[in-house]
Amino acid sequence: MGRTTFAIIGLGLAVEPHVKSLLDLSDRVEVLYAVTRSEKRAQQFSQKYSLPVSTDMQAAIGDPAVDVVLILTPPHTHLEICELAYAHGKNVLIEKPLDVSLERAQRIVQGASRAGVSLGVVLQHRFRQSSLRLAQILEKGELGSIQSASMMLPWWRAQEYYDEPGRGTRARDGGGVLMTQAIHTLDLFRSLVGPVKVVASHSGTTALHDMETEDCVAALLRIADSAPATMMATTAFYPGLPESIEILGSKGTARIIGSSLQVNYLSGDQEELHAEAGTGSNSNPMDFPHDAHRRLIEDYLDALGNGRKPLVCGEEAMLTQRLIEDLLA
Q: 15 — alpha (psi -120 to 50), left (phi > 0) or beta?
């Protein structure tokens, strides 16, 4: 079987971990196009990576040699690019969120189904080693039944981050801290504890930021068998701390902090998985390694080869986006 061919659409802030992952997987992947509308970005990208750069998105997506369209453009552009890809029978891997609204997101998911193509979403926190191990522990019932859980994302973004045109607006990004930053941890949290119901929530914008959408959200939740849970997410917690998920089980407790995992069983046994890597919690949003991206892309390639859905498919991403809507309601 030959290599899977990719066209990358969008060479902005998010491109680096994807390109590094695709280069790591060069025995399975070939990048035929790296597309941007910006001549400046095209030049900068060409100086850094030896990949074919283009400013013609239509030609890239329309090329019969392309198997997968990797969409890394701002959220408000996703639907139209997906529809173009579907029209050419292309599989799609798309950066989170699906789009800026549930209605547009649903059209992306339904469009992939109608076109008979694979749709994957880049919610890579599920592919951290700590996340994979905790999911395994929970699946085996080693923590027992979940009694309570919590999620915190005390991150920091300076005002300069929101001064970029469109950043933190409903029109371009679809929202603030939940849609842009906390979506990753919310998706992981939901995948670990199961369905999440919002009991009460409050969202707002702190005095630390001048922006259209929310930079702070807190909520009381209900999870497995009506167990209580809480969440808090903000980009106003200077200088920024790693996100965390805590799960209280009938046989022990588990805590993810950033990319590290600690499990304490009532039997006295302990398990630790330690990671020093950054998580993007501070003023540098790209301060994290690309290994989780690589594992997500590997799962997507495996899904294509085996005729199954990727672990983070469109339907899974929709569940997380619906949770965000409920938290902001």
A: alpha
Contact by Cβ (8 Å): 246, 255 = yes
With a CB cutoff of 8 Å and minimum separation 6, the contacts of 136 are: none
Residue 165: both structure tokens together: 């045109």
* Cα separation, 126 vs 185, whole angstroms: 9
Could you tell me if 67 and 194 lie in one domain?
no
94 SS3 class: strand
215 & 255 share domain: yes
What value, to the nearest 5°, has the Cα angle with vertex 155 and ends 183 and 283? 110
Q: What is the pLDDT of residues 285-311, one digit of tens each?
A: 777 899 999 999 999 999 999 999 999
pTM, whole model, 2 decimals? 0.96
Same domain, 138 and 260: yes
Among residues 42, 36, 79, 26, the alpha carbon closest in space to that of 60 is found at 36
CATH number reported for the structural domain that contains residue 142 in this entry: 3.30.360.10
Contacts of 187 (CB under 8 A, 6+ apart): 96, 123, 125, 126, 312, 316, 317, 320
Q: How many domains does the chain have?
A: 2
Residue tagged 């994957």 (tokens): 120
Structural domain includes residue 40: yes
Computed over its alpha carbons, how large is the radius of gyration of the chain?
20
Instruction: Assess whether 113 and 245 both reside in one domain.
Output: no
Same-domain pairing of 58 and 199: no
| Domain span holding position 267 | 126-285+314-328
221 contacts 199 by C-beta, under 8 angstroms: yes
